[in-house]
Every structure is written in structure tokens, then in C-alpha cells.
């Protein structure tokens, strides 16, 4: 059983499916790939994974989502789970939101949508190197 995971959070299912496919194709079965369609669901998934003994290494999160913006979500994650590496993937975030996430959530990187697959995989790969 894989004891390390990567979580993708976005309110668009097609984006989540694409991210999971790209990550699993590149990193293979070394990690468990989880998705959540909202920050609230993502927080539940993290708790479940932790309770199952799975270490969430990286979160790739959208910024513009209903009920909670990505910077707010990543700050909450950082407060509870400071060792998770946080990547924002967005076409909407303004500089203030990115700066907030950098300051209060230790944001690792912000990637613009539509994303370049090679850049995403390189960024996640480097993030994984730093936490494994």
C-alpha cells in the first residue's frame, strides 16, 4: 500500500481528472492520488488519509472555488499540516492572494492555467524531492 499521497483540489471535475492522469502517468504507483471538488471536501480527505497512515506530501489547489478561495484553503491546511507542500494552480488569482498564500501558507509555487504539463510535473517532482 502506498503510504504517501498527492491531493488535487479544483471545483472542475475535468481538471481533476486531467491532473490525476498526468501525475499518475508521470510518477507511477509510488503515490496515492486523491482529488477533491472543494476545499471542504479536501480537508476531509486529508484527515481520512492521515488517519489511514498516509502522508500527504503535496497539494495542488485551484484558487477560484465556491465558498473558499484557494489561498484561504491553503492557509488552513498550513495551520493544521505545515509539512504539506502547497502549489496553487490558477488562472484567476491576483497578486495579493498569491502573496497571502506565500506569507501565511508557505506556498511553494503558483502555476497559471492553462498549465504546461511539463512545468507542472517538474514543479511537483521538485516539491516531492524536498519532502520525501
Could you characterize the architecture of this molecule?
The chain contains 5 helices and 5 strands. It has helices at 13-27, 39-51, 70-80, 95-105, 117-131, and strands at 4-9, 32-36, 55-61, 85-90, 107-112. The protein has a 5-stranded parallel sheet, sandwiched between helices.
What structural keywords apply?
single chain, 132 residues, alpha/beta, Rossmann fold, 5 strands, 49% helix, globular
Short description:
The protein is built from 5 helices and 5 strands; from the N terminus they run βαβαβαβαβα. With 132 residues, it is α/β, with parallel strands linked by helices.
State mean pLDDT (0 to 100 scale). 94
By CATH, the superfamily comes out as: Response regulator
Radius of gyration using CA atoms only: 13 Å
Low-confidence stretches: none
Could you tell me the CATH topology label: Rossmann fold
Strand order of the largest sheet: 2-1-3-4-5
**CATH class, anyone?**
Alpha Beta
Shape: globular
Sheet of most strands: 5 strands, parallel
Structural class: alpha/beta
Helical segment count: 5
Oligomer state of the chains in this structure: single chain
What is the second-level CATH architecture? 3-Layer(aba) Sandwich
- The arrangement of helices and strands along the chain is EHEHEHEHEH
Percent of residues in beta strands? 15-25%
What percent of the residues sit in helical stretches (DSSP H or I)?
Answer: 40-55%
**Termini, distance in Å?**
16 Å
- How many domain units? 1
Number of strands: 5
Amino acid at each position: 500500500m502506498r503510504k504517501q499521497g498527492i491531493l488535487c483540489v479544483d471545483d472542475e471535475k475535468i481538471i481533476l481528472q486531467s491532473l490525476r492522469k498526468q501525475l499518475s502517468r508521470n510518477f507511477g504507483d509510488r503515490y496515492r492520488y486523491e482529488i477533491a471538488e472543494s476545499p471542504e471536501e479536501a480537508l476531509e480527505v486529508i484527515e481520512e488519509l492521515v488517519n489511514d497512515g498516509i502522508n500527504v506530501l503535496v497539494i495542488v489547489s485551484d484558487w477560484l472555488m465556491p465558498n473558499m478561495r484557494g489561498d484561504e484553503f491553503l492557509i488552513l491546511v498550513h495551520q493544521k499540516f505545515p509539512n504539506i507542500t502547497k502549489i496553487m494552480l490558477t488562472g484567476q488569482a491576483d497578486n495579493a492572494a498569491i502573496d497571502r498564500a506565500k506569507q501565511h501558507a508557505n506556498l511553494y509555487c503558483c502555476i497559471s492555467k492553462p498549465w504546461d504539463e511539463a512545468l507542472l510535473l517538474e514543479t511537483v517532482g521538485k516539491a516531492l524531492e524536498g519532502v520525501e
